[in-house]
Predict the 3D structure of the following.
Amino acid sequence: IMKDITRELELSFLFKRPHHVYFNIKNPSKDMKKTFEIDIKISVIEKIIENGYLGDSGVLLNEYTLDNNSRRVDLAVLRGDKFYGFEIKSDADTLKRLHGQSEKYLDFFDKLIVVVSSKHLKKSLEILPKNVEVWEFHNNKIIVSRRGRIIKIKNKLSLLRLMSMKDLKSLAKQEIPKSFAEKRYDIEQNLTQIPLSKIRRRSFEGILKKYEKATSEFVGSAKFLGLEKSNIKTLGLRFKERNMEKIKKEKNQALWEEMKKQADRDKAMEVMAENYGDNLFGDIPTTIKDILDD
């Protein structure tokens, strides 16, 4: 068993793969290596970049939130006028939510691709609709198990829910200038009056503008340094938002600590004032007295 473990670690180091090795006390050889989401995600991103899924101006999104933040897909790719979603199921996951997830994702993506570890392949093929593409992650390789189909989003509300509030208001001002709606729900309902093609175009333009810089920096870093050394988290704005929140929290904590210290100093001064009265800092030096007297 120790020889197998040593060999696994050597291979992980040699190929710079983030293999996760762990032990099953009852049967160490049975579960020596378990495939986790990050293992699969790296291979999927490699395939996306190497196979030209991004084209010349596509964007890659990590942990992309949908439907007013009620759902989050593992990866998404917007290339031209087509939007692709990628959901990953590793050995550590279950398929309990897969049916509901796929139904919701098909409302927002022109094509859904589900990538599963070998453990989940058979069940996934049974659960998922025929238009959903299924990839198997086996021996650190991606195998296309079933081809899917592109079915363009036709639900106007789904496309509108991909837009930021700022973009929604901008579109409403341009297309429905007499509308004075302020709430998101009301703006979305009003915008369903305009053609699907306009909504689709403006929705995708907003996504491209928001993520093109992060995608360009990530792909450049991945090609130069290797994908394992690139920070996949930087592909999503959620990482930047969480990072800003962390910085703000740290600043607030530092300010609070300083205020506490100042309060302690003030309290100490009050105690000293009570004990020493007006003579808190001692007698005034003669030289200073002479200046004040003049």
